[in-house]
């Protein structure tokens, strides 16, 4: 078992309500067994205090023991990972290794083993917080996407969204990253509805349940999906009390297997499901994309925001991710 950090340089500065970044570092776990090399990627959740260094250390110290001798024992591996107090990013990487290895061992792509389909719903493409002029310019350059996700939570949100709408007739979604309060949401909602915004992702701080409940009582409002307040299966039932859907990120829930459980639970509770991501390479995005056809919305554009391409194999056609027909996750290191 090896764990290697990969620095992903962004094409341009990426700003959200919590801050800005020009690069992000992910960790790739690699396991060789029975002549098969399998890989999985994990992304640190920085607002939980995770770092690439802690993920590398955790994988190298305990990764092989957690996976055990039988890589087909998915439920047992999943239980060990769930009980482990290691970083969620490390769990994501190890879960990815297992799925990649099993698929390669059986000669089948993971999406096929999961009963999913090769092509996902259209992925949104993210427009970070910028000036009104900068937002308009980013929108003009975001061609070929049916859906745009606009980061909000800064000054001039409505002006920026007007600028986006003036440039495109794409479907619009917005992401507050906990940057609004209730009064902001109340005042902005009527115009957001007029602009055709489909839904808002995490408008309020995760622990401000009162704000979510109060917003839910408005006669006209946007549907609300929960990201920062959604971690794993244990989060889903509570969210059904105050929101309309969940955002599943493998870096937070720990991998494909837990994400599938969350999807089924959300369906049973009448919640919409969106797959999200951090800034990740094609390897990390491919892990989530295996489930793409099983959810309502896809927000898997992290690999499209970076200037490098350490892994290849994930396709894009008409704004939809197209999974490889090769065994496993269908993603391998780039020759470049």
Question: In the CATH hierarchy, what is the class of the largest domain?
Answer: Alpha Beta
Strand content: 15-25%
Mean pLDDT: 96
* CATH level 4 superfamily of the largest domain: Enolase-like C-terminal domain
**CATH-scheme architecture of the largest domain:** Alpha-Beta Barrel
Distance between the termini: 23 Å
Q: Considering DSSP H and I runs of 4 or more, what fraction of the residues is helical?
A: 25-40%
Provide the domain count: 2
Family: Belongs to the mandelate racemase/muconate lactonizing enzyme family.
Keywords: Isomerase, Magnesium, Metal-binding
Enzyme class: isomerase
Pfam families: MR_MLE_C (PF13378), MR_MLE_N (PF02746)
Question: What topology does this entry show?
Answer:
Blueprint: E1 2-16, E2 19-33, E3 36-42, H1 52-67, H2 74-83, H3 88-106, H4 110-113, E4 119-122, E5 124-127, H5 132-141, E6 147-151, H6 157-167, E7 171-175, H7 182-194, E8 197-201, H8 209-216, E9 224-226, H9 233-239, E10 245-248, H10 250-253, H11 256-268, E11 272-275, H12 282-289, E12 297-298, E13 311-312, E14 315-317, E15 320-322, E16 332-333
Parallel strand pairs: 5-6, 6-7, 7-8, 8-9, 9-10, 10-11, 11-12
Antiparallel strand pairs: 1-2, 2-3, 4-15, 13-16, 14-15
Helix pairs in contact: 1-3, 5-6
Question: How would you explain this protein's 3D organization?
Answer:
The protein has helices at 52-67, 74-83, 88-106, 110-113, 132-141, 157-167, 182-194, 209-216, 233-239, 250-253, 256-268, 282-289; strands spanning 2-16, 19-33, 36-42, 119-122, 124-127, 147-151, 171-175, 197-201, 224-226, 245-248, 272-275, 297-298, 311-312, 315-317, 320-322, 332-333. By secondary structure, it is an alpha/beta fold. It has two domains: 2-107, Enolase-like, domain 1, CATH 3.30.390.10; 113-333, Enolase-like C-terminal domain (TIM Barrel). The chain has an eight-stranded parallel sheet. A three-stranded antiparallel sheet has the order 1-2-3. Strand 7, helix 7 and strand 8 form a beta-alpha-beta unit. Helix 1 (52-67) packs across helix 3 (88-106) and helix 5 packs parallel to helix 6 (157-167). The two termini are 23 Å apart. The mean pLDDT is 96.
């Amino acid at each position: 078992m090896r764990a290697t950090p990969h620095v992903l340089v962004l094409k341009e500065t990426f700003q959200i309500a919590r801050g800005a970044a020009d690069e992000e570092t992910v960790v790739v776990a690699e396991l060789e067994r029975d002549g098969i090399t399998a890989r999985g990627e994990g992304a640190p959740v920085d607002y939980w205090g995770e770092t690439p260094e802690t993920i590398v250390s955790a994988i190298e110290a305990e990764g092989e023991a957690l996976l055990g001798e039988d890589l087909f024992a998915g439920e047992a591996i999943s239980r060990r990972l769930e009980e482990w107090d290691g970083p969620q990013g490390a769990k994501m990487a190890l879960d990815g290794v297992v799925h990649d290895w099993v698929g390669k061992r059986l000669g089948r792509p993971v999406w096929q083993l999961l009963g999913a389909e090769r092509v996902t719903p259209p992925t949104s493409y993210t427009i970070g917080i910028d000036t009104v002029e900068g937002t308009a310019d980013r929108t003009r350059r975001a061609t070929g996407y049916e859906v745009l996700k606009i980061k909000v939570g800064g000054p001039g949100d409505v002006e920026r969204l007007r600028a986006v709408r003036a440039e495109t007739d794409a479907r619009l979604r917005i992401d507050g990253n906990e940057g609004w309060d209730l009064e902001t949401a109340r005042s902005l909602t009527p115009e957001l509805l007029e602009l055709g915004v489909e839904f808002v992702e995490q408008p309020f701080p995760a622990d401000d349940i009162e704000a979510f409940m109060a917003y839910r009582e408005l006669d006209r409002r946007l549907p609300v999906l929960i990201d920062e307040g959604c971690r794993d299966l244990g989060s889903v039932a509570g969210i059904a009390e105050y929101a309309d859907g969940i955002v599943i990120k493998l870096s937070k829930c720990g991998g494909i297997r837990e994400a599938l459980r969350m999807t089924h639970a959300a369906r049973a509770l009448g919640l919409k499901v969106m797959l999200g991501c951090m800034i990740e390479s094609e390897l990390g995005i491919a892990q989530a994309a295996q489930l793409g056809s099983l959810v309502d919305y896809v927000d898997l554009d992290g690999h499209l925001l970076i200037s490098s391409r350490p892994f290849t194999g994930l396709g894009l056609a008409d704004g939809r991710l197209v999974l490889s027909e090769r065994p496993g996750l269908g993603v391998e290191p780039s020759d470049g």
